[in-house]
What does this fold into?
Amino acid sequence: MTTETKIVRFDSLKLDCGVTLAPVDVAYESYGELNQDRSNAILIEHAFSGDAHAAGIGPDGKPGWWDNMIGPGKGFDTDKYFVICSNVLSGCRGTTGPSSINPATGCPYGSSFPAVTIGDMVRLQNKLINHLGIKRLLSVSGGSMGGMQALEWAVAYPDQVASAIPIASTARHSAMQIAFHEVGRQAIMADPDWNTGNYYGSRMPARGLSVARMVGHITYMSDDSMREKFGRRQREKNGGPGFDSVDFEVESYLRYRGSQFVDRFDANSYLYITKAMDYYDLSAGYPSLAASIERATCRFLVLSFTSDWLYPSYQSLEIVNALRGRNRDVAYCELTSNYGHDAFLVEVGEQAEMVGGFLARTLKEVARR
It folds into this structure.
């Protein structure tokens, strides 16, 4: 299946910070067919560094980031469902962000781009869904930051969501999660080429962005997966060890991942998106998480993974307990995996079975009503 990324332009978008972006573009892809009563639409939310290309083969010949979960006969079965995925606001893959041209100046926004929130991202997605003529989504799902967006959809637009599937996610970041993001941001801003965010047209802060990605990638794996994949294996080298040499296989892997990331991601987008994740708190302004989540009326399937230490299962259980405390329809499962946080992208067997069954039951419930 060859896919095409489409872009829709809206006149404006009012942000939580009070600024109005005008105009604003959103990039998206879709898979499968929308049924006659438009009741089979599913919105997929990407994680921090993802984009709209979630499935199929893109023009560059590369598969989508969740291609093992989206497609005919897969967890999100495109023989049954119409699946949509859009690039988030402040991204760098087609949706308006810091690297976009500011119409007021004719230059990229850079660090003048306004602060965005998870709520802003979801508000733009809501514009897209309305534009597509879909009154109610069968489900909203995503892992990591995608799970935050799924939760936000459920509470911000309860009448437009029949179900939500947050995977390996949280209702708010812990101090540790914020700390890892801050290390990445500081690595970028310490790069002399960052130039306070105004580096477009010159050298981008590749070294800082690469280090930020290396730090982040460590958190996506587990001790078991790193031991199995790398151990203490060393690379062949000439001469003795040096602090600036690449002696271990894990060092080579991290440097490769860092350099690969630089080729496809914008440093300013890294800063804006991680900050939006850190500020997200579903319970903000409410006496408890349960009180905030009371706005949601849809069915929930919450999934976590045993070896995920970045988004540990206790954070998913906080969501589940809050939902159960308000007598919401919620199913929860902690899946066994050694892949750490990356498990939701890698371990798709049991995950696909649970998602597929949950969606089938939801579709029957929607049809019954």
The radius of gyration is 21 Å. The domain at 177-274 is CATH 1.10.1740.110 (Rna Polymerase Sigma Factor; Chain: A).
